[in-house]
TrEMBL record:
Matching Gene3D superfamilies: Dihydrodipicolinate Reductase, domain 2 (3.30.360.10), NAD(P)-binding Rossmann-like Domain (3.40.50.720)
Family named by the database record: Belongs to the myo-inositol 1-phosphate synthase family.
Name the record gives this protein: Myo-inositol-1-phosphate synthase
Domain of life: Bacteria
Domain Myo-inositol-1-phosphate synthase GAPDH-like: from-to ranges: 239-343
Molecular-function annotations in GO: inositol-3-phosphate synthase activity
Organism (species): Streptomyces abyssalis
Entries under PANTHER family matching the protein: MYO-INOSITOL-1 PHOSPHATE SYNTHASE (PTHR11510)
SUPFAM superfamilies membership: Glyceraldehyde-3-phosphate dehydrogenase-like, C-terminal domain, NAD(P)-binding Rossmann-fold domains
Length: 404
């Protein structure tokens, strides 16, 4: 990139930069977002898929791509440059990009800290000093892995140090980790909620790009209200559900009753493996079904399946079969096929959301940011149809522009 290196501290009041702290920072979505931001900031690639780089957001005061600084938490150890090379081999990133943005990837990787607890297993924490040694359950002796409060404090300390060491105006925390199942009864916080609590404790705005619980845990309700921090979520809308949020209103508005709506997803990579777990798949499907129920007024017959096909890597295929009634009871069918790379679909949305929520924080917004349903399957506020969500997003852009 240029002399304005996004992960290199600079001095002076005019050099304020914005941090983007990614939970799951070595995953496919995070790696694509970091590499993509570097490529866009240097002019190597156009900002395809980024709404914030269109005229609709001109003059809104969003942090420039050249001023974003990346770090994060992850339980994985594969360095970002190597992860980017793997994504090239999988057809996600263009050839030559990891080498061209190697410095930016390495700089971001230097700010990735060990995370935990590990999803899908007992509540564990892997610390740097624990590598190579067995870990113990939370609540063990104080010289071992730590309890919930200690975990939250540790994660918050990482965020505070990152913001301080890079002289950042603010840091936005974005959860792009693997989907976890719905939490059980009780006050125990799932991993996504531990990270969300740490964001609140560190005074950081928060975005949940996954269907995981995050801030939506009753234990965190008081902390969310008292923090007065902007937040957004949940579950990024990148493919099949994006199409459903366009088609379902069409049927409702044209008075065409939908008798059944079935769907199948074939995907590999980390998402495919994570969603092979029934609890995680149920959490994912809930958002997809909610889009239909909210737009049609009811959930039609039909099932939604998610199948793990490791050979597909980061690519996915989604089929939908819609059975509906026409005039005089004629039976009709609509079938759709969506094929795409989930990481490439998600990464520009992650960058959009980080920039918008950072600007909302600067403008003094508290609580759920109104107008961001356009990006989510299960939005905190607003309508369920994509045209309505677009109008609200444009209203948000207008408010940010007025406050700039």
């Amino acid at each position: 990139m240029t002399q304005d290196h996004p992960n290199q501290p600079t001095a002076g009041p005019d050099a304020a930069r914005t941090g983007v702290w990614l939970i799951g920072a070595r995953g496919s979505v995070a790696t694509t977002a970091i590499a993509g931001c570097a490529a866009l900031a240097s002019g190597m690639q156009p900002p395809t898929g980024m709404v914030t780089e269109t005229a609709a957001f001109a003059g809104c005061g969003l942090p420039p791509l050249t001023r974003l600084v990346f770090g994060g938490h992850d339980t994985a150890s594969c360095p970002l440059p190597k992860r980017a090379e793997q994504l090239v081999a999988g057809g996600v990133l263009p050839h030559g990009l990891p080498a061209a943005v190697h410095a930016e990837l390495a700089a971001a990787d230097a700010y990735i800290r060990p995370g935990g607890p590990l999803p899908g297993g007992p509540p564990l924490l892997l610390r740097a000093e624990d590598e190579g040694r067995p870990t113990a359950p939370l609540g063990a002796a104080s010289d071992g892995p730590r309890g919930e409060e200690e975990l939250i404090d540790s994660f918050a300390a990482d965020l505070t140090a990152f913001t301080r060491d890079n002289a950042l105006a603010r840091t936005v925390v974005v959860n792009v980790a693997s989907t976890e199942g719905a939490p059980g009864d009780g006050d125990t916080l799932p991993p996504s909620s531990l990270y969300a609590a740490a964001a609140l404790r560190a005074g950081c705005p928060y975005v949940n790009f996954t269907p995981s619980t995050g801030l939506h845990h009753p234990v965190l309700d008081d902390a969310v209200r008292s923090s007065r921090l902007p937040h957004a979520g949940r579950d990024g809308k990148t493919g099949q559900t994006l199409l459903r949020s366009v088609l379902a209103p069409m049927f409702a508005q044209r008075a065409l009753p939908v008798r059944a709506w079935s769907g199948t997803n074939l995907l590999g990579g980390g998402d495919g493996a994570a969603l092979a777990e029934p609890g995680a798949a149920a959490a994912k499907n809930a958002g997809k079904e909610r889009v239909l129920a909210d737009n049609l007024g009811r959930l039609p017959e039909g099932q939604l399946h998610i199948d793990d096909v490791p050979a597909l890597g980061d690519w996915k295929t989604a089929w939908d079969h819609v059975a509906f009634d026409g005039f005089l009871g004629s039976r009709m069918i609509l079938q759709t096929v969506w094929q795409g790379c989930d990481s490439a679909l998600a990464a520009p949305l992650v960058l959009d959301l980080a920039r918008i929520v950072a600007r909302a924080h600067e403008a003094g917004t508290a609580g759920a940011v109104e107008g961001l349903g356009f990006y989510f399957k299960d939005p905190d506020t607003g309508p369920a149809d994509l045209p309505g969500q677009w109008r609200e997003l444009m209203d948000l852009a207008g408010r940010l522009r007025a406050a700039a």
